[in-house]
Amino acid sequence: MIKTEIISANALRITVPDKLKADDFRHIAPQIDSLISQYGKIRLLIDASGFNGWESIGAFENHAGFVKNHQQKVERIAVIAAHDWQHWLIGAVRIFVHPEARAYDKNHESEALQWIVG
After folding, report:
1. Full domain range(s) for residue 102
2. pLDDT one-digit tens code per residue, 41-73
């Protein structure tokens, strides 16, 4: 299950599990939607250092749909990535999504946090 933690008024830390499940985004949507309704735009620090993929194609589709439906309300995304493919994916995603997105290695997590809340 995805874990969330508020790190500043309009910023949320999301810790992604090893495998995303199809219903994971249904569980975090109310918290994210609440922050969006309060602040208009939010910032996300996503710790994907333990992430190894999606449990099923349905999980991937739900993830893509969630991103599509929320991207206009996210100002910045910092992703803590542990794998080369994650850095590549963030680079590719930057072309298609609205928020500014950056990938950081685990040992640069403090820089990612500073960029999100700063």
Report:
1. 3-117
2. 999 999 999 999 999 999 999 999 998 899 899
Q: What pLDDT shows up at residue 8?
A: 93
Report which secondary-structure segment, H or E, holds 106.
none
The CATH number linked to 43 is 3.30.750.24
Q: Please, is 105 exposed, middle or buried when counting C-beta atoms within 10 Å of its C-beta (0-12, 13-18, 19+)?
A: middle
Task: Give the tokens for residue 89.
Answer: 């994916």
Query: What distance in Å separates the CA atoms of residue 19 and residue 2, rounded to the nearest whole number?
Result: 10
This prediction has a pTM of: 0.88
Could you give the number of structural domains in the chain? 1
Residue 43 near residue 77 (C-beta atoms within 8 A): yes
